[in-house]
Each structure stands twice: as C-alpha cells, then as structure tokens.
UniProtKB/TrEMBL annotation:
It catalyses: 2 GTP = 3',3'-c-di-GMP + 2 diphosphate. Pfam families: GGDEF (PF00990). This is diguanylate cyclase. The keyword Nucleotidyltransferase applies. Its EC number is 2.7.7.65. PANTHER family: DIGUANYLATE CYCLASE DGCM-RELATED (PTHR45138:SF9), REGULATORY COMPONENTS OF SENSORY TRANSDUCTION SYSTEM (PTHR45138). The keyword Metal-binding does not apply. Residues 487-615 form the GGDEF domain.
Length: 615
C-alpha cells in the first residue's frame, strides 16, 4: 500500500501546470507554482514574506497558504502544513469555485497523511464538483485520477481502474498537458504494481519520472523516484531497488526534505531484510524511526516500520524485541478505523504468532493464529475481487509469456519427432513433418489466441447478471466511436424507481429479474437502431443515441419509459417505472462532464416525483 499512498501524494503535487483560466491572478499563480516545484525552499521563504505584504487579496492569501501547506508537507513539517491548510480554509472566498477546489484537492492528501481516508475521498469528490462549476476540465481530470489512487488505497480495485481509465481517455482525447499525463501514468503505475504486474508498473513509473525530470520538477521528482524504488522492491529487483533508495537518500539531503529521509531508509531497510543483511536493516530502520511523529504521522507508515523491526528481530532470533514493536503496532491499530486495518492486523498477528512460538508460548501463539484465520476469512471477499481484477489485468501482459512457452513446447515436440524419424533413416520425411507441425501449431495457436482474446473481451465488457454491455464497454465506445468524430449525440442515464423497495419487499431474486427484463427490453427497443446501451451500475442503465439532439433524445427515452411502465417484468407482476436524465454533447465538453449533466438531470427527475424524463 506504500506505493498507492505515494501515488496519491505525487499526483497532488503535479496537478497544477497549464490549468488556469486567462485571468491575471491565475496566471500569476501558475508562475509561482512552477518556481515552487523547482525551488521549494526558496519559495517557502518568499511566500512567507508575501503573506505579510499589504494589498494581498483574500484569494491570493488562500492560494499562497495552500501552496505553503503543500510545500511543508513535501518537506515533512506536518505541524506547519496543518497550520497553513487551516489558515487557507478560513480565507477561501465563497464565490470562487476554483480556489475552493484547489484547496480541497490538496487537503485531501493531508487527510490521507492523517490516516483519514473516508474524509480524504469526500474532499477529492467535492474538489471535482468545484472544478466542474469552475469549468476547469484539466483540474477535473486530475482530481478524478487522485480519487482513483485513493480507491486503490481503499482496495476498491475495479472502481479505481475504471476511474483512472476514464481520466486517461479524457486526457488523451483533449490532448492535455504533460503534467496531467504524469499523474495519469503515476496512477497506472500504482495500479499495475498493486496487481503484481511489475513490468507495466515500472514502465509507467519511468514515464512519470521522465516528465518530472524534463520539467525540472524537484518536488515531484522525489515522489516519482520513490514509486519507482518501491516497484523495483516489490518486483524483487533488489539491487536496482537498493541503488534507487540510495539515490533518494542523497537527493533528500540535497533538497533538505526530511520526509524522504524517513521513507528512503525505511524502503532500503526492506531491501536489506530480503537480502538477509540484518545489521544494515536495523541501522536503516533506526534512522527512519528518528523521524517518526515529526515528518510522518500516517499510522500506515508507522505500523509498517514497527513490523519491519519485528521481522528483523525475528530473523535474528530475538523474539522479545520483536514483540515490543508488535505491541506498538497493535496499539496503533486500535484507533486505525479504515479498510486496510484488516490487512495490517493480519500482518501484525502473523508476526506475533511467530514471536510467541519462538518464545515457546504456544497457547498464546495459537490464539493469535485463530484471530488471524478469522480476519483472513473476513478479507476473503475483498481478496477474491482483487484476484478477479488481477486476472483481467494480467491477460494482456501474459500473452508474450504464453507465446514463448508454446514455442518452447513446440520445439521440444519437434525435436522428439526429428530424433525418432532420423533413427529410422527418414530425415527428409522429418523435415516435412516438422514443417507441417510448425504450420499447424502456429495456426492452432493463432486460433486459440483469438478465441481466448474474444472470450476475455466479452468477459471484460459484459455485465454478468444481465448479459448487457457494462460501463467499461460503453465508455470505450463513446471515446473511440463518437468523441472527436461525431459531436451530435445524446446520452441518457435511466434508473428504476424505488428499486431498493423491490429488493426489500420481494427479495433480490425478483430485483434481479427486473434488471434482466429491463435489459431485454432495451435490447429489443434498440435492435434496429445505431444506439448503444449498457448497465451503468446497480439499477442504472445508460443509453447512447448518435445523431439525436437533446429534444429528440428526450422523446425517445420518454417512449422507452412508457413502454417499461406497460409491462410486467417479474414473476410478481409488479409495475415498475423509471426516471431518466438526458444530456447532449456540446463542442469542448468533456465526457465526464457530459455524464455528470445527465446524472444531475436524472436526480432532478427522481427528486421531483419520479417516473419522468428531465433534460
């Protein structure tokens, strides 16, 4: 999870190039921020002096204090960072959506540092709403990627990659800045590394690092390098990881960033532990420990550090010392109410059981193992979701391995055939057989690959309950078939009214019947059109209507809703209605904004009586 944390942290430091409107104060903000990312220490001094000057507007005060809070967080001065965030919040003008979104975006990172993940996610979503109101599409895309990284931290993997992919599509479609691509690449690096696809994770981390280097961006440079170091470490490229962490230590000292003088030694200690260099691991862990509670307050980092000590002392057959650190982790876990509490608890309990076993306290070790089993069962569903997501992600990455393995097996089989025929004096026949086998194997391989690819694509693009297309498919359809090619299209999001009551009163089986029948109705109604639909989530469906204006789309969806109301879709013969929101694509409108407009219209329909269409 360290890599996901620093993805969020990095993304938030690289989100402000080329983002401002033409107003003069935002232009000035841009110049200030560019210098701050290149010369953080000098800009801290200048910003502190600027804040004391006369004639500074409230908006400028809020911006400068937010930037100071960010720079102090980068350095690791938690107390000052918190103080400047609080001061900036008091100065936020109520009529400036952009500056409110700016503060919310970076405050969400500080909330993550405090271990307040739900608050962090709430803040980044509020930031997105503010940027929509401010009509700043690039900042909106960046905020979406931050949310995706936060959801990785919360282990909501399918939702996270959905959001990150959507941000990637919007960034590419609108040809957004290199800085925007930096945090997109960084989020992708975190996702693939989390899914244990380290080659891809490394690839995207290097792309992000190169952008930071090209931009002369010191503040983003260190987080990028740290993500790359962690990717090397998790991929078991231990020599590369050790060298990477050593580079971090030197750079951290050079730019006077104590935060990374905690993180780099802690990371390098993990590498030393894997290399069985236990004395070096202890030295590095103690160096990192000296910065705890000053530059680092996130419970996740401190628990990981304590457990690093415990692993090292266990390797040195010193279970008493290991237990001291385990108890410190357990104390932190009692107040650490968040999704990853289960994971950290399981790691700590595993180390506790090992320590107690080394001490011969077998009854206590057994109790720790029982609790570990209970927590493992609780985490099984989440783990299964991750495995399913990992399997989907791994498909493309393993194709080359499959080809190589098949080629190797083919050569072995051919060699056996050749040896057999050669012994029988039929060498010429052997060459013919090998040629035929080669052609057959290549043909069979190509066919199997095509079938496997098509099956994978169907699974990835199909809702398992209704058999309809899913959200992933429809977003790809819009991006590849409509965006930039056809501006005249409308979108509608439909929602079955009072669907929760159907589930509560009649059971989920009847609710599933309703969803399946509604999907079948849409399939029938759209069969002879060029329109597309998908299950968008829960009881929501989305319909894409090329070549329809807003008024035409409104009428078409209205007829659909009337048709739905006239049918009995379930065994219970109940009448269902639906509400819908319709929006039309406009020049310069981002896909995410278009969907949000349709969603807003849907909620207006639901809040004003349901069983209607709003546009």
């Amino acid at each position: 999870m360290r890599i996901i944390y620093f993805t969020v942290y990095l993304v938030c430091f690289c989100c402000s190039f080329n983002l401002f409107s033409s107003t003069s104060f935002r232009t000035a903000f841009l110049v200030t921020e560019q210098r701050a990312l290149a010369e953080p220490n000098q800009l801290i001094e200048e910003l502190v002096l600027t804040q004391a000057a006369q004639g500074i507007s409230t908006t400028e005060h809020a911006y400068n204090n937010t930037l100071l809070a960010r720079l102090y967080l980068f350095k690791g001065d938690i107390a000052r960072s918190q103080s400047y965030f609080a001061l900036a919040q008091q100065q936020l003008p109520k009529d400036d959506d952009w500056i409110q979104g700016y503060w919310l975006m970076y405050r969400s990172v500080f909330s993550l540092e405090e271990g307040l993940l739900p608050e962090s996610i709430k803040q980044i979503r509020l930031a997105q709403n503010a940027f929509i109101q401010a009509n700043d599409l690039e900042m909106l895309v960046q905020a979406e990627s931050i949310e995706g990284a936060l959801l990785l931290w919360q282990e909501e993997y399918p939702k996270a990659i959905e959001i990150i992919e959507n941000a990637y599509i919007e960034a590419k479609t609108a040809n957004m800045s290199s800085t925007t691509m930096l945090y997109v690449y960084d989020s992708l690096a975190a996702y693939y590394s989390t899914m244990s696809l380290f080659e891809k994770g490394e690839q995207y981390a290097v792309l992000a690092r190169d952008i930071a280097s090209k931009n002369g961006d010191v503040v983003n440079g260190l987080p990028v390098i740290y993500i790359l170091c962690m990717t090397y470490e998790r991929a078991e490229k231990l020599d590369s990881a050790a060298a990477c962490y050593e580079e971090m230590i030197m750079l951290s000292a050079m730019v006077k960033a104590p935060r990374y003088l905690f993180l780099a030694p802690a990371g390098k200690a993990n590498v030393a532990l894997k290399q069985k260099k236990y004395s070096q691991a202890l030295q590095l862990l103690n160096l990192a420990k000296s910065y705890v509670n000053t530059v680092i307050v996130n419970p996740a980092h401190i628990i990981a550090l304590n457990n690093g000590f415990a692993k090292t002392f266990l390797a040195l057959q010193q279970p008493e010392q290991a237990l001291e650190y385990i108890q410190a982790s357990e104390l932190l876990l009692t107040d650490y109410d968040r999704p990853l509490n289960n994971r950290y608890s399981r790691n700590t309990l595993s180390l506790k059981a090992q320590s107690l076993e080394q001490l011969g306290r077998f009854a206590e070790a057994t109790n720790a193992l029982k609790l570990l089993i209970k927590l493992t069962e609780q985490a099984k569903e989440t783990t299964q979701q991750k495995l399913e997501q990992e399997a989907r992600s791994r498909f493309e990455s393993t194709q080359q391995d499959i080809k190589l393995q098949l080629a190797e097996e083919k050569l072995k089989y051919q060699q056996i055939t050749l040896d057999k025929l050669a012994k029988e004096g039929q060498l010429q026949a052997a060459y013919s057989v090998i040629g035929i086998l080669a052609i057959l194997s290549i043909t069979i391989f190509a066919l199997n690959q095509r079938k496997a690819y098509l099956r994978s694509q169907r699974r990835a693009n199909t809702d398992p309950l209704t058999g309809a297309h899913n959200r992933r498919y429809i977003l790809d359809f819009i991006a590849s078939q409509l965006i930039g090619k056809q501006q005249n299209f409308s979108v509608s999001i439909l929602d079955i009214d009072h669907f929760k009551q159907v589930n509560d009163q009649y059971g989920h089986d009847i609710g599933d019947q309703a969803l399946i029948a509604f999907s079948a109705l849409l399939t029938e109604q759209l069969a002879d059109t060029e329109y597309q639909f998908a299950r968008f989530g829960g009881e929501e469906f989305i319909v894409i209507m090329p070549n329809l204006t807003l008024a035409q789309g409104h009428d078409f969806i209205g007829n659909l809703c009337i048709c739905l109301k006239s049918l009995s879709l379930t065994d219970k013969k109940i009448t269902l209605t639906s509400s819908a929101g319709v929006a039309q694509m406009q020049p310069g409108l981002a896909l995410n904004t278009l969907l949000k407009i349709a969603d807003t219209n849907l909620y207006h329909a639901k809040n004003t009586g349901r069983d209607k269409v709003c546009s």
